[in-house]
Every structure is written in C-alpha cells, then in structure tokens.
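F.,

This is the one I mentioned.
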C-alpha cells in the first residue's frame, strides 16, 4: 500500500535487506537521511495533535498524497496545481504490531477552522481545501507543507475526533524515480481507464485531453485522444505508472477517488514485488538507489521524535498486514450541498471513527466485514 510504504520505509528495508545486518544498517541509514522533515509548530491551543511522548500508546498518523500535476512531455502551464489528492489515517494500536489504514474522501464537505498563519478566515469546503488554505503561498513566505498538514489535522480532528501523533506528505511523482531504478513495473489493471492528463493529437504529438470546470468535472477536448489503459496485466513505464495511478475520472467502474486509492495501493504492492523479483537483496547498489528514490518522495513531521525512532517503532507494522478500511463502505455518499459534488460521512462511518478512537475497531470490522478493502 503506497501510503504505508511511503511513511514506513522499513517495509522496503525488510523486502530488500536479506544480505545481513550490515546491509540492513546501510539501507536504514540511507532511508532515514533521504526523508525530508517538516517543522510544524502547532501551538498550545491546538488539540488535534498529541503533546509529548508521541511514540507511546496507540498512534494515529496523517498521510497525505501530493500531486504536483507534472506529466512528462506536457507543458506544465496546462496542468493542475499542486494539491492534496489522497488523505489517509494510519492507526496503530498500542501493541504497535499491526495497522489500520482509513481513507478519507478528499471531497468530504467539512468546516475548516480559521488559520491566521495564511490569513484564512475559515469556512466550509471540501476536505482537501483545508490543506490548500493552510499551505498558502510558499513562494510568498507562506508555511507550505507545514501549514497544510497543520490545518488539515485541525479540520479532521473536528470531523472525526482523531488526534495525531505525526503526519507525512508523499509526492507521488517522486515514486517514478523508484520505478526508473527498476526499469518499469508490471501490474494488473483492474478496469479500463482513459487518461485525463496525457493524450495524443492525430499527428502523434502530446496533448492534455481534458478540461476541468470549477467543480472539477473533466470534459474531453476534441481531437486530443486520451491514453487508454486496458484491463489486464500490463508492463508500465515510470511515466505510465504515474499517469495511471493519478486517474479518478473516465474510469470504467466510475469509482472515482475510491478507485484511485485502490490503484495506488496495487501499484505499491507491484513495486515491492518487482524489487523482490529483480533480486535487490543481492544487489546493494541498486537497493540503495531504490530506497533513496522512495525516501526522496517523503516528507514527515515527527512531533519532536527522532525519525529513526519512528521507523523502529513501526517496524513490526511494516512486517505484518495492514487492514484497509473503506470509509462510507467505499460508496459515494453525497453531501446535502447544492452546486457541488461533495461527499458526507455516513452515520456508520461516524461509528467507525468512534470505534477507532476507543480501541474497538476490531469489533466494528467483525460486524462490518464488507468495510475491509480486500482488492488491494
């Protein structure tokens, strides 16, 4: 699962470190040194984060996938700006031996608190707008990723009651570097998908096949044919893998964000399988390049704990299964807001978050086994 791999680099180390203790130490050092660190000063009035002893007891980590809109061979001025595309919570019980990964719809309609650091006055909007409002204009002195994560944690706390021990962002474009090290990746395409980012004119030149309106709805551009990913097992180039895992429109099953999250999870599993198949356990230089590429895509707020201590605390989670939970049972639940395609949390989703807060998530999943994503 891509978010799990992004934050718990130890998962990669376990996969590729069969060469012995020295190899493990070298790879571990490489991963830790390559992960960027975000400095968030949440302030004394912020009840959305755990204050002190962030590695003790049950843990909640906010995971945000960043899409910077870049597509190789396409004019970047025609693409969408950087945004928070995937928002997840990794919950680890106090035993620190397993995890639960909960996806939050980015179109969830929420109340966003005021954020003086960027001059945002508060209001209602989609969940990913909280990240944008906190990010501000980094070039103009805004807080950037630190502010985006800070305001997003505050917003999610108000909606779900979850408090956070740490947070991380992943630039999914950065994962193409890991695929380049491997020379491509083989994965199963589970539905026919047409790209809204990358297409071709009749003369073979590249173009952007979709135009987005104010509600984020994609409309096809005449003469520009979007690249099609047909169902079946395919060998993808780094650029194709990035394009496929970014899609949420023009999908055969019409499953939007839920489909994209599933495809991203499938991609990371395929990436790890590719690394194993290429024998990285016996090729330390290639293993180092792979781990550096993955770590270079990650930035993390560690809540005043050492990054190495986070990896060591979560090492058993990386070695075991992480249960994927589908908010709203993986079904679109429209919000009662006119003029937008926003979503709302179902009453059962609210029960699920309460179970997560109170340590009763296993009881909830026993009664609601269809909320477990078994397709990733």
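My design for it:
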């Amino acid at each position: 699962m891509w978010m799990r791999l992004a934050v718990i680099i130890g998962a990669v180390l376990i996969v590729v470190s069969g060469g012995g203790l020295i190899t493990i130490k070298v790879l571990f050092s490489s991963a830790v040194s390559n992960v960027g660190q975000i400095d968030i000063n949440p302030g004394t009035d912020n009840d959305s984060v755990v204050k002190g002893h962030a590695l003790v007891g049950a843990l909640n980590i906010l995971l945000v996938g960043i899409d910077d809109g870049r597509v190789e061979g396409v004019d970047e001025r025609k693409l969408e700006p950087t945004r928070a595309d995937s928002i997840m919570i990794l919950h680890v019980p106090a035993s620190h031996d397993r995890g639960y990964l909960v996806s939050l719809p980015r179109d969830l309609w929420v109340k966003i608190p005021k954020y003086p650091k960027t001059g945002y006055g508060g209001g209602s909007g989609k969940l990913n707008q909280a990240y944008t409002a906190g990010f501000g204009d980094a070039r103009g002195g805004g807080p950037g990723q630190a502010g985006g994560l800070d305001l997003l944690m505050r917003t999610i706390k108000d909606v779900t009651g979850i408090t956070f021990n740490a947070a991380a962002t992943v630039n999914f474009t950065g994962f193409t570097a890991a695929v380049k090290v491997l020379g491509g990746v083989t994965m199963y395409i589970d539905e026919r998908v047409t790209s809204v980012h990358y297409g071709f004119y009749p003369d073979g030149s590249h173009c952007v096949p979709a135009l987005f309106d104010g509600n984020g709805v994609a409309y096809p551009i005449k003469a520009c044919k979007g690249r099609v990913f047909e169902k079946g097992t395919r060998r993808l180039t780094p650029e194709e893998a990035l394009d496929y895992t970014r899609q949420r429109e023009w999908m055969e099953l019409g499953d939007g964000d839920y489909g994209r999250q599933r495809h991203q999870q499938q991609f990371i599993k395929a990436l790890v399988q590719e690394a194993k198949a290429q024998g990285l356990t016996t090729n330390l230089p290639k293993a180092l390049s792979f781990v550096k590429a993955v770590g270079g895509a990650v930035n993390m707020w560690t809540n005043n704990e050492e990054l190495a201590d986070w990896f060591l605390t979560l090492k058993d989670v990386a070695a075991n299964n992480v249960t994927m939970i589908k908010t709203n049972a993986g079904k679109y639940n429209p919000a009662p807001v006119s003029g937008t395609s926003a979503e709302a949390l179902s009453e059962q989703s609210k029960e699920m978050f309460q179970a997560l807060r109170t340590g009763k998530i296993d009881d909830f999943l026993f009664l609601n086994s269809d909320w477990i994503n078994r397709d990733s």
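The longest strand covers residues 83-92.

Talk soon.
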